[in-house]
Predict the 3D structure of the following.
Amino acid sequence: MYYIGFCPSCEQGTLGIRICSSLQDLVILCDECDALWLTPETSVSPHFPQQPALPCPACEGNLTAPPAHWAELGELFERGWLAYIKGEAD
């Protein structure tokens, strides 16, 4: 999982870049508290999608089930998000 930093909401989770079920939209998702941002700007208040499906605010698809997935390096490159990556986590 490529991440952009650590969660300002729970201060424990890693902020991974997730591709939603539509395979079009990228979201930032905390891997601990499921706080969600629609852009890499995490200084704004996060969304907290309904559990357990975590519906994407853009397409309403389930963010936890395929075809949704953690973004891969090539996908981030194609969408112009490489500049936001701070590292890679397991």
